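Consider the tokenized backbone below.
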């Protein structure tokens, strides 16, 4: 009997390494449970199975939104890592389980513009920019307008009054719904407190970022520069000094930074060396070899972002810097 090989269909056999254990202990938020490993060639496939075993809530997550760790503080395991190799590298038990975690994403923000109101409670043509993240932020914002019951979309005042974050449109203009006139002083105080808190947070974040990135220790100098008569010459949201390199960092913090803000920052920095001759503050008697200006913000206008004027740092602040 002669068999023609050309007429035979030869199918390649796919081979997966089979882990030596039948299950792995995995923990999410509650007690660890056993998850079978049979048929899972790598970590990615195992995550797909484990998420359904551990919690109904995890079933809504994609695998690329989940991490598997050997122990707290370690780097996540690569999705392509073979399960056989993983099993050989760990001593897995209910007391030493793998950890399944969800990638943390920063809370979303929306930037809105709210119409200013004068002392008489009348609307002005000016708008103030606010950044809100939650329903509580929205409530705190419109309640600073006294008896306001929410926000109205300026482009269509017939729409329902807005009190929820989800109903706001990013970048849109609003005005407070005012059944009665509000206290301007209270609104101004809220804005001042918010700005002060943001400036303090940004100054500390910038200091931490620069110290880690440059490997130097930075000293904080007085934010207000005064002349001989103790009159204010210049004010910054933060002044940092690197003694080793004789470099001073002048920080300007805004919720929204535009090209106009950067131009003003450049002018302030150009004037800085001349002011050093007028002040008697001993902190500013050093010979500064480098003067750097840092514009820090939670949002830069689109034109600056497109021109790559800014670079994102891991600390979630955005810095635009230059030497003048």
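A designed sequence for it:
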């Amino acid at each position: 009997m002669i068999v023609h090989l050309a007429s035979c269909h030869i199918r390649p056999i796919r081979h997966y390494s089979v882990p030596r254990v039948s299950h792995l202990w995995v923990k999410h938020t509650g007690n660890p449970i056993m998850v079978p490993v049979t048929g899972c060639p790598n970590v990615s496939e195992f995550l797909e199975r484990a998420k359904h075993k551990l919690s109904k809530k995890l079933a809504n997550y994609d695998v690329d939104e989940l991490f598997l760790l050997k122990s707290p503080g370690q780097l996540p395991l690569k999705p392509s890592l073979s399960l056989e190799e993983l099993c050989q590298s760990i001593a897995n038990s209910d007391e030493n389980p793998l950890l399944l975690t969800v990638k943390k994403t920063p809370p979303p923000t929306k930037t809105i513009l709210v119409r200013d109101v004068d002392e008489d409670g009348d609307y002005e043509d000016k708008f103030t920019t606010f950044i809100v993240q939650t329903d509580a932020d929205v409530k705190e914002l419109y309640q600073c307008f006294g008896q306001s019951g929410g926000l109205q979309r300026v482009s269509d005042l017939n729409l329902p009054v807005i009190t929820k974050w989800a109903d706001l449109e990013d970048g849109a203009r609003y005005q407070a719904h005012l059944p009665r006139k509000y206290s301007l002083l209270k609104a101004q105080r809220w804005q001042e407190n918010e700005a002060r808190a943001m400036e303090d947070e940004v100054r500390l974040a910038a200091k931490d970022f620069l110290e880690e990135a440059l490997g130097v220790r930075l000293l904080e100098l007085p934010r207000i520069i005064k002349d001989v008569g103790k009159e204010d010459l210049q004010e910054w949201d933060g002044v940092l000094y690197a003694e080793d390199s004789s470099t001073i960092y002048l920080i300007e913090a805004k919720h929204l930074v535009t090209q106009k803000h950067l131009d003003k920052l450049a002018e302030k920095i150009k004037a800085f060396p001349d002011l050093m001759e007028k002040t008697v503050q001993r902190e500013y008697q050093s010979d500064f070899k480098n003067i750097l200006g840092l514009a820090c913000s939670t949002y830069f206008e689109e034109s600056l972002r497109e021109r790559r004027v800014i670079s994102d740092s891991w600390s979630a602040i955005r810095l635009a810097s230059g030497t003048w």
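Residues 259 and 303 are 8 Å apart (CA to CA).
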